[in-house]
Design brief:
Elements (H helix, E strand, L loop, with lengths): L2 H10 L4 H8 L3 H9 L6 H13 L4 H33 L8
Length: 100
C-alpha cells in the first residue's frame, strides 16, 4: 500500500498520528515515517492500521479505492512524462521541427 494512502486513510478516519500509533501499538514517529515514505510499511503494521481505521469506519474497500486512485495518478504522470521525453528526443534528433 502506498504511503500516501496510509496518510489519507488516517485522515479520513479522523485519527491523528498519535491516535493511530496508539491503536496500532507503535510510536507516533513510526507512523510519521511510514506516511512520508521514509520507512517501508511492514505487513503486520499494515494489518494493524487497517484494523484501527476499520474501527473508525474506513473499510478495506475504501483503502483499495484510494490505493487505485493513487496508482492511476502515478501511471498517468509517468505516461505524460514519457510522452514529453519522446517529443523532446524527436526534436533533439531533428525528426520533428518545433518551428512555426
Amino acid at each position: 500500500m502506498d504511503y500516501k494512502v496510509i496518510k489519507s486513510v488516517r485522515q479520513i478516519a479522523g485519527l491523528s498520528q498519535s491516535e493511530l500509533a496508539e491503536a496500532v501499538g507503535v510510536d507516533r514517529s513510526l507512523i510519521s515515517k511510514i506516511e512520508t515514505g521514509a520507512t517501508p510499511l511492514q505487513c503486520h503494521t499494515k494489518e494493524a492500521i487497517l484494523k484501527a481505521v476499520g474501527k473508525a469506519g474506513v473499510s478495506l474497500a475504501d483503502c483499495i479505492a484510494l490505493h487505485t486512485i493513487y496508482q492511476n495518478r502515478k501511471l498517468k504522470q509517468h505516461q505524460e512524462s514519457k510522452e514529453e521525453t519522446v517529443q523532446k528526443n524527436l526534436k533533439n534528433w531533428g525528426v520533428i521541427n518545433d518551428r512555426k
